[in-house]
């Protein structure tokens, strides 16, 4: 998780699905958050 948050790793779809389920949000919400984080780091 920390590697994803730090932008050092791109999670697999299966990981994104697990995160979405754990957070009780849509997969697109998790994907958008990861994408936004990546854009702020570049």
UniProtKB/TrEMBL annotation:
List the Gene Ontology MF annotations in alphabetical order.
DNA binding
Boundaries of every HTH cro/C1-type domain copy: 2-30
- Membrane-spanning regions, if any? none
The entry's protein name is HTH cro/C1-type domain-containing protein
């Amino acid at each position: 998780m920390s590697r994803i948050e730090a932008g050092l790793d791109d999670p697999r779809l299966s990981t994104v699905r697990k995160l979405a389920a754990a957070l009780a949000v849509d997969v697109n919400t998790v994907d958008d958050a990861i994408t936004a984080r990546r854009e702020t780091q570049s």
